[in-house]
Specification:
The protein is an alpha+beta fold. It has one domain (3-143): Roll (Thiol Ester Dehydrase, Chain A). It contains two helices and five strands. The chain has helices at residues 22-41, 124-143, and strands spanning 3-8, 44-55, 64-74, 78-88, 94-107. The protein has a five-stranded antiparallel sheet. It is globular. The structure holds coenzyme A. Coenzyme A (COA) binds next to strand 2, strand 5 and helix 2.
Amino acid sequence: MSTSHVQIIMASHVNGIHRLFGGQLMAWIDIVAAVEAKRHAKSGVTLLTVDNLTFLSPVYMDETVALEANLTWTGRTSMEVRVLTYVEKLDGTKILVNKAYLVFVAIDNNEKPIPVPPFVPLTDEEKKEWDGAVERKSIRLKSLK
Ligand SMILES: CC(C)(COP(=O)(O)OP(=O)(O)OC[C@H]1O[C@@H](n2cnc3c(N)ncnc32)[C@H](O)[C@@H]1OP(=O)(O)O)[C@@H](O)C(=O)NCCC(=O)NCCS
């Protein structure tokens, strides 16, 4: 499964140095990732943590950005989603401008964590992302100690 979002950068999206405002991109990343997590969990979700939110290149007005969200890992009630953001040039080439990983927890109507269906990685890329997610979770938990 995959969830995508496409956006043309308008005047209201840029900051004082004429680049896409990072907080705006973060909001789009949060939304596309949350929808990907909800589609998998088939329940409400809440954002637990974000890491590797790396801005690789600036984005300017009138450019087209395309966000692609993919589930990378599931635990019992938590899920990790990767969001890749590209600038799409007029000739169709895509330049990666941001990569982020977000962890959501599935919740019921009482806001209590509930189990999610397991995700089974099949392709080499999915297996690599799964292994990366396990490592990221371990680093995250160590950083809290
Ligand atoms: C997310 C939330 C529901 C989790 O509640 P909780 O009481 O910690 O629940 P649990 O201890 O059962 O943990 C739930 C899952 O989160 C994981 N988790 C908790 N803290 C974690 C951390 N720091 N890093 C990674 N995973 C973590 C647990 O391992 C568990 O995953 P699993 O079931 O797949 O093993 C709660 O912390 C919360 O509501 N936070 C605020 C979220 C929010 O408001 N987000 C912003 C807008 S949506």
